[in-house]
Amino acid sequence: MTQKQKRSTFKTVLFSLVGIAVLGTVWYLGSPLLLNRTVEEALPGSTQSEMQKTDMPKTEMSTPEKKAEAKPTTLYTGTFVDGDNFHKVKGIAKTVETDGQLFLRLEDLDSTNGPDLYLYLTKEGMKTSEGINLGALKGNKGNQNYELPKDADLDQYNQVVIYCKQFSVDFGKAALKAI
To answer: What is the 8-class DSSP label of residue 85?
Structure first.
């Protein structure tokens, strides 16, 4: 192989690797804008059906006792507003208490998708990244639940923010108000 052929082969390999890297980056950054993930979780504490009925022989001892379940109570609620002209969010954020546990529930969520989206609780005027991280956003559409820390003071931490960690951008927020 001549020096010229080696140089040509090297350039071809180098351009191919750069091209693959560029395409991968474009896909990583652009695909969330094209793809949606819908999550449909039941309201915490609600039951889909009380019990599955099966064909079992009836005996006096096989009757299950019905347990009184506490109904979910909504404590705070807020409506999402867009983070900016490009990042759009619609839906409702509410805190729900059931059986002594506190959840943040997102209902009818419809958000612009993006890479590295997380859900935060923040105080008014606080930088989002300094708030309480509730974890990765499960989906950009639908109904979903996030367990809240027991020590979360919702009178102080009254903003729910959908936040892109990678680019430090708020996609949208909802101000929680007591009911």
So the answer is: S
Largest CA distance in the chain: 92
Residues in a beta bridge with 46: none
- pTM confidence score: 0.74
Measure the CA–CA gap between 148 and 161, rounded to whole angstroms: 14
Residues 6+ apart with CB under 8 A from 60: none
CA distance 179 to 107: 17
The CA distance from 168 to 115, in Å, is 11
Q: How far apart are CA 19 and CA 153, in angstroms?
A: 49
| R_g of the chain, CA atoms, integer Å | 24
The first and second tokens of residue 157, run together, are 């931490």
Q: What is the tens place of the pLDDT at every residue in 69-128?
A: 678 999 999 999 999 999 999 999 999 999 999 999 999 999 999 989 999 999 999 999
Closest to 24 in 3D by CA, of 143, 108, 115: 115
- Phi, psi values for residue 117, rounded to 5°: -85, 135
Q: Which helix (H) or strand (E) holds 39?
A: strand 38-40
Q: Which of 39, 44, 42, 151 is nearest to 95 (CA)?
A: 44
Query: Among all chains, which residue has been given the structure tokens 């839906």?
Result: 91
Calpha distance 166→117 (Å, rounded) = 8
